[in-house]
Amino acid sequence: MEFSNQPILIWFVVGYGVFMLLLGMYYSKKISSSEDFILAGKSLGPVVLMGTLLATWVGSGSVTGGQNSLAYSFGIWPALMSTLPSLIGIATIFLISSKIKHYGKYTVAEILEVKYGKVASLLAALIIILAFVGIVSYQYQGLAYILNISLGIPVGTGTIIAAVIIIFLAGIGGLMSVAPTDAFSAFLVIFGLIIALPIALSSGGGWSEITSNVPESHLSATGSLSFLQLMGYYIPTLFLLLGDQNIYQRMSSSMDDKSTKLGTVGWIIGLIIVTPVISILAFISRSMFPDIEPGMALIAITSVLPVVIGGILIAALTAFIVTTGNSYLLSAATSVVYDFVGKYLKKDIDDHQRLVYTRVLIPILGIIAFMLTMYFPTVLSVQMYAYTVYGAGITPALLAVFLFPKVTKPAGLASMASGLVSTLFWEFFFVQSTGINSALISVPIAFIVLFAVTLFTKGQHNEMEVPENG
């Protein structure tokens, strides 16, 4: 089947965009402090928390990269199994969610500073910026694909438009406005995906017809990937999630421990519904549209659905992409303000100035993210780079704070540095020639260094108690 643009779908995108803008402006009026902007005033109930956790994690990384690209490029089983790393990560976070909630810190770097000192805070801020601007960059590409599907706008032009939209919305209301729109979008996309699945199966001619139109390797357990290549996609996902500052900030934004627990359970349920359906729809798209960009697979399906269903789905996917971009831009800007500006450039910074600096930094970091879109060839490639930089550079040392309190300060610093350096070294010099994702090298190095250095410096540790009040 030849793909054709569906201009009518843009009206659903525009309509939902206006709704998000109005909702954002409404909630922005409730902001009176930097805590309101960054942690939504610690007021999120379980339903909103579940929605914002799901929308943040299942953003463009899933609907244009992740499950979507894996299903389209390599096969149905690699995509379906890619939900497992996320479930493992969420289960681990669930176990330590109370500790995260009561830690009382705005950024991951602040947590690391308590355990490992100021150098760790600076290093963490650098890693977060390197990773999060990468994540923001493929949200731009995801929104550009939607503009291409609906209006035929070239992806390059659409990326510029997307950058402007995401930067603007990120600067309006922070998490106070992002969280409610996330929640609404999460429930809308669950509805849209469930309704779209049987219609897409029918449009594709049924499962037998769909499977007959894809390469035979796309039906095997690892698709067209080797086991090592498959792990190269799963490990970065797991280790980003285990230490993701965005997730930790949302945990800290809940109103109480009960809300945190219920919200996390809801997140798991939502993930179990959403990610397999994304995988199947992208696989159907591979059968129907074999010559499109992999990142466009799920979005392209909206063109064969009834207008109302396709419109609802593409609007919800747009919201997922935009709010994920907003969240990671906000989180990166927060790190710069709290972990660098407030500690080294302007130590007497007050709360209002923090808010102003955060809003000023959002467009600066947003422009850097746009520049990254010109370096990486696909959504999946920049996604794996960003996930690995963070997962190797921060997650091992961060998990140790909550799970291995006897890890020493030198060990934490050495782990962070070795994870970052080995990731960048492998990305620039070996990933293309070997086809092996840097996560398979850098994550084990970071853990080995963490525990090896601890053994040699174990007399230097100071066990740390988690603060009782956040």
Automatic annotation (TrEMBL):
<feature type="transmembrane region" description="Helical">
    <location>
        <begin position="146"/>
        <end position="171"/>
    </location>
</feature>
<dbReference type="InterPro" id="IPR001734">
    <property type="entry name" value="Na/solute_symporter"/>
</dbReference>
<feature type="transmembrane region" description="Helical">
    <location>
        <begin position="264"/>
        <end position="284"/>
    </location>
</feature>
<feature type="transmembrane region" description="Helical">
    <location>
        <begin position="411"/>
        <end position="430"/>
    </location>
</feature>
<keyword id="KW-0812">Transmembrane</keyword>
<feature type="transmembrane region" description="Helical">
    <location>
        <begin position="6"/>
        <end position="27"/>
    </location>
</feature>
<feature type="transmembrane region" description="Helical">
    <location>
        <begin position="119"/>
        <end position="140"/>
    </location>
</feature>
<feature type="transmembrane region" description="Helical">
    <location>
        <begin position="296"/>
        <end position="322"/>
    </location>
</feature>
<dbReference type="GO" id="GO:0005886">
    <property type="term" value="C:plasma membrane"/>
</dbReference>
<dbReference type="GO" id="GO:0022857">
    <property type="term" value="F:transmembrane transporter activity"/>
</dbReference>
<feature type="transmembrane region" description="Helical">
    <location>
        <begin position="70"/>
        <end position="98"/>
    </location>
</feature>
<keyword id="KW-0472">Membrane</keyword>
<dbReference type="InterPro" id="IPR038377">
    <property type="entry name" value="Na/Glc_symporter_sf"/>
</dbReference>
<feature type="transmembrane region" description="Helical">
    <location>
        <begin position="39"/>
        <end position="58"/>
    </location>
</feature>
<feature type="transmembrane region" description="Helical">
    <location>
        <begin position="384"/>
        <end position="404"/>
    </location>
</feature>
<dbReference type="Pfam" id="PF00474">
    <property type="entry name" value="SSF"/>
</dbReference>
<keyword id="KW-1133">Transmembrane helix</keyword>
<feature type="transmembrane region" description="Helical">
    <location>
        <begin position="221"/>
        <end position="243"/>
    </location>
</feature>
<comment type="similarity">
    <text>Belongs to the sodium:solute symporter (SSF) (TC 2.A.21) family.</text>
</comment>
<protein>
    <submittedName>
        <fullName>Sodium:proline symporter</fullName>
    </submittedName>
</protein>
<dbReference type="InterPro" id="IPR050277">
    <property type="entry name" value="Sodium:Solute_Symporter"/>
</dbReference>
<feature type="transmembrane region" description="Helical">
    <location>
        <begin position="356"/>
        <end position="378"/>
    </location>
</feature>
<feature type="transmembrane region" description="Helical">
    <location>
        <begin position="183"/>
        <end position="201"/>
    </location>
</feature>
<feature type="transmembrane region" description="Helical">
    <location>
        <begin position="436"/>
        <end position="456"/>
    </location>
</feature>
<keyword id="KW-0813">Transport</keyword>
